[in-house]
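sanity check this fold:
=====
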Amino acid sequence: MIKNNNTLCIRVMKRVYFIWFIKKVAPYFITEFSLFAVFAYLIGNNVFVSKVLQYASQILANSSIDPAIWSAFAWNTFTGTEFIVQISVLGVLAMVILLFKNLITSFTQLSLSNAETNLASQSLHN
């Protein structure tokens, strides 16, 4: 009887955790993913990827694998673009950082609450 009750409790708590996780995390991820998609769309419409790859291949053709040269290439490419592209690149970087921050925070909260509940349920059954 105790074994069946414990199994039922575990199944119910897993569902509760899943629902809590979706309610807590989904709005953030949907918002951030939408903004990421908008910025990526702007980059796709305003950046000629073939030109960027052509310039990068020219640097590689000169056997330049020095990080300083690649940093200069990235900076010159970034500053040589239109303002909307610069804003879009910064927006995509911000969205990626926020996405990972929220993902790590949410999983940490989920694991902490799961651990607290397991400790409480173990002490109640002993």
